[in-house]
Design goal:
Blueprint: H1 3-36, H2 41-62, H3 83-99, H4 102-130, H5 134-140, H6 161-166, H7 170-195
Helix pairs in contact: 1-4, 2-3, 2-7, 3-4
Length: 196
């Protein structure tokens, strides 16, 4: 086996592993997050600059995507091929800002590179294999960070609340509210301890 084949083999295995471990790693990261977080009310308020747009983007994207049924190129998908992941990144780094801990931000970068990039590449391979128009779409639209202008011939499409509900994207909002409540309790308890 050549070195190139060995690398490709490792990459294919890691893509499968990363897909399986991303949720358990998320729970492990949540424990680490709450242990290391040192929020205050200013950091919680400031974090909304990233968390709120991330939630809006995820919600908006979920109302367009028809997973595994068709290639979605309208709505936010006309600007970036991965608006759901971009929304998740905004939310995650917003909560890193809320936590006021450099190590949380470093851990997020590592998790994204090691886990989410291989997942994104795997999804791209699936889309390439199943949707003939994907290669053209991928040439026109950036993978993650959005372009600012959309070509004139792009079909606009329309948001579907039915798809939003089907994808249960409201869970992102509920989860974010839960994290904020936990952080607010932590700030309040810390202040009570300091006042004694």
């Amino acid at each position: 086996m050549t070195e190139e084949n060995a690398k490709q083999n490792f990459y294919q295995k890691w893509k499968r592993i990363s897909r399986r471990i991303r949720v358990p790693l998320g729970f492990l990261f949540a424990v680490l997050y709450f242990w290391l977080a040192r929020p205050d009310f200013d950091s919680l308020l400031g974090s909304l600059v990233l968390v709120a747009p991330g939630l809006v983007l995820r919600g908006y994207a979920s109302g367009y995507v028809k997973k595994n049924a068709e290639l979605t190129t309208t709505g936010p998908y006309a600007y970036t091929r991965n608006p759901l992941y971009l929304g998740s990144i905004l939310i995650a780094f917003g909560f890193a800002l809320a936590a006021r801990n450099f190590w949380i931000a470093i851990a997020l970068v590592l998790l994204f590179v090691a886990i989410y990039m291989p997942v994104i590449y795997g999804e791209e391979e699936y889309l390439h294999a199943h949707f003939p128009g994907y290669d053209d779409y991928a040439r026109r639209v950036p993978r993650l960070f959005p372009r600012l202008k959309v070509q004139r011939d792009v079909v606009v499409g329309s948001f579907s609340f039915e798809l939003y509900r089907k994808h249960r994207e409201y869970n992102s909002l509920l989860g974010s509210i839960g994290i904020y409540l936990a952080l607010i309790v932590r700030v309040a308890l810390w202040r009570m301890v300091q006042w004694r």
